[in-house]
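Give me the fold.
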Amino acid sequence: MTGRASIVVIGGSNLDVKARSAAALAQGTSNPGYASMTPGGVGRNIADNLARLGTCTYLVTAVGQDTVGNDVLARTSAAGVLVDHVHRTDAATGTYTAVLDADGELIVAVSDMRATAELGPAHIDRAKDVIAAADLVILDGNLAADTVAHAQRLAHTLGIRTILEPVSVPKAALLASHITADQPLYAVTPNRDELTALTDLPSGTDYELRSAADVLHERGVEHVWVRLGARGALFSSKPGDVTFIPAVPTTVEDVTGAGDSTLAGFCHALLEGMDPVSAARYGHATASLTIASPHTVRPDLSAALVEAVLANVTAESD
């Protein structure tokens, strides 16, 4: 343990397989293009981004006892993430296979998260010491619902701020019942469709977005940060306290990992003392750098690089 401010990320790790078409996609046939294989997983990606930004980060995850798992762990550790609390399972290390069009936009993806599904309450308890000393805990919605609930309870008992990333509409629907006022969350970070799944309310208009966010506030969520794609995001800290944050203009190379870097940037900025809205803006700047890179986690990501983007945005708005 160190005396530095730290974050514990609990979630998935896997191998990302990304295939990008060289031209407009033709359905039902083979398309010429390019492919890559890199470490991935929402939880792992968030932790990797945080470490590159300079935040002391522990990863609680599960990978197989296979060569893929060995490689994922080695490369994650090399980025600066602390991996002492990783569970090695007999299941194969998870995979995320994505198909991108020629513009880098996601067309379809298939994830095999069976290893992550084995991460249970007992594995969370084994990391209790680092959770108790953390400033933030981030929960990846790919975890089993009972594991999320257990981690929430533990963090709440220890007085640690907790952030939930819903990940997808199906996962959000499974997690909705675990967002309750008796176990408050510091923040939830859905996109528009995930917000609907969490609240069972429409979110097509700005009024509906605010109303759905208010429901989560009533259920113990302090900050509701709704991702709106190219438009940016709605950041709601309480009913009536809503800020629309624009996306940072960038060149789209590959959108994979943008949400992971957004959340990592936000959490890093919080630990640096920024208020939540300013931290969200920092997250948007971090995402702009990831989107402009062909990598799920940008290898040269640093706090200095993000701060340069923010300075440029400020200069252009003056």
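The chain has a mean pLDDT of 94.
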